[in-house]
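note to self: the first set is below, dont mix up w the second
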Amino acid sequence: MTDVGEAGFEAMRPVSDQGYDDRVLPFAVEPLDVRGRVVRLGPAVNNILAQHRYPATVARVVGEAAALTILLGSALKLEGRFQLQTKSDGLIDMLVVDFDAPDRVRAFARFDADKVAAAPAGTDMLGKGYLAFTIDPGNEMSRYQGIVALEGQGLEAAAHQYFRQSEQIPTLVRLAVAEIVTGEGASWRAGGLMVQFLPSSPERQRQADLDPGNAPITYVAEEPDLDDAWVEARTLAETIEDHELVDPMLSSERLLFRLFHERGVKVFPPQPVHDACRCSRDGIEAMLRNFSPDERRDMVGDDGKIGVTCEFCSVHREFDPADFV
C-alpha cells in the first residue's frame, strides 16, 4: 500500500491494522482510475443515536444517512456545509443530517413511534417522497441542490441515482450499520465506502442515458459499453460485506487492501469527524426575538418559561419572557 504524506511524497509502508473510529480515509487506485473514501463511525454515531433513544429500525436508517452524508460532505474543503434531507410518507417522514466542513456532523429523524413499534421486520421506513442533497460551499458562492425520488429503494440506491442523474460520475456506495453488544454494553457503529470512476477522458465515464420520460413505448435506451477499469473496480468493491464496514477490529487500510491489493491502493491522510450541534443559547434567543410579543406569549409554558428543545442534540433551554420586553 502506498501512503501519501502531508509533504506530498510517496512512500511504501506496511498496511496498518490499527483501526480508528470517526475518521474518513480518502484513497485512490490509480491503475483503475478510481478514487474514493471509507468512513468508520463509532462514538460519533452512537452519541447521535443515544441522544434520541431511537428504536433500532429508525437508528439504522439515521446511521446510514450519517455515513452517507459524511462520505459526500467530506469532499468539501476548509468550509462549507452539506445537508441530506428526506421528506416522505414513510414511517420516518423527515430525516436531516448536516455536515459542517471539515469535521462536524449532526442528525435527527421525525417518525411515528406507534407505527414504528407495530411495523413488521423489513418494513421500508422512508416510503415515497424525495431525498435532497444540498451543498453550500460558503464564501457567498451559490448553493447547489440535487433531488432524487424515494420509491422504496433505500439510501444506497438513491445515492447511486443521484450520482447518475446529477453528477454523471460512475459511483458505487455501500453503507452498513450495526449495534455491537459487548460486556460493557451496546453501542452503535456505522460505516460506508464510496468508489468513483474518474478517468482523464470524460468519454470513458459514459453511462446509460436517463429515461426521457415521454419516449414512445418502443423506445429502448442505448446501453454504452462500460469501461473495463470501472467494471473491475466496481466488481471488487461489491464484494465488501456489511460486517466488514462496521468491524471495530478491521482497519480501513486493511479493508482497502483486501479489496484492491492486486492493483495497489494509495491512501491519503485521514480526516477526523465528530458529532457536534451548532445550536447555542444566543442563537435561540436571537430567533425568539424575531417573533411577535403575541407569538412569544403563546410559547410560555405552565412554569412561566419559554422552553426550546433542539431537534438535533435534544438540549432543552428555558428563557424568561420578561427578557424579551
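second set (the one i keep forgetting abt)
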Amino acid sequence: MADDMILETEDLTKDFAGFVAVNGVSLHVCSGTIHALIGPNGAGKTTCFNLLTKFLRPTRGRILFKGRDITAMQPADVARLGLVRSFQISAIFPHMSVLDNVRIALQRKRGTSFDFWHASSVLDVFSDRAMELITDVGLSSYANWIAAELPYGRKRALEIATTLALDPEMMLLDEPTAGMAHEDIGRISQLIKRVAANRTVLMVEHNLSVVADISDRITVLTRGRILAEGDYEAVSNNSEVRGAYLGVGNA
C-alpha cells in the first residue's frame, strides 16, 4: 500500500437543519489503493460522497486532494483535477451507441463542446481510443449496440468506460454492483480491480463479499461518524462493526 495520501478530509461535517448526516469525518485514502466506504443504511455514506465530489457544501471541515484544498471548488473543477465520480461525468446517452457514448466522453476530455449537431465523422478521431476503452471493460462485442438495450451490468461497465475516458487519477464509485445478478457482480468486481491498477478507487458498496474481495482498506461509517478502519479482517472482527450491522452486542 502506498504511503502517500491522495485524498484526505479533516473534521468533515454536514448538518441539514439540525440533523447531522456526516459528523467530524477524517478520512485518509492512500494513492494506488481500493478504499471501501461501508456502513448500514443511513450511515452517511452517500452524503459523504456528495461532499467529496462537491455536490454538497460542508457545514465545516476541509477536503484535500493531492494536498490541495478543494473544499470550496466546483464539481467540474474538481473533476478536471482528476477526481471523478462515475455518474458525475459518464452520463450515458441511452439512444446512442456504446461507441458513440465513449467517443463523446473522449471529446469532453479534449475540452470542447459535444458536437451532437455535426456529422458523426467529427468523432472519428476518437474511435481507436474509444475501442480500446470498450475492450478494456469487456464490451467489444457490444460496441454498436444502443446503450439503452444493454443488460444492466453492461450499462455499468459502459459508465466506467466513459469515466475512464476522462483519464481520472482517482475514481469514486457509488454502489457499482447494486442491483446486479451474480455473474455481473463478479465481472464488475474484476473490472474495478483492473482499472485500479494505475489509479485510486474510493467506493461505496453494500455487497460485503465484493468489499472483502477487492478492497485494500475499509472505512466503516455509522450515524455519520467513523466507527472503524482497517483491512477486511480487522473490521469484520470488530465487535462494534458487527453490532452496527447485525445488532450484535459487545459481549
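remember for set 2: The mean pLDDT is 88.
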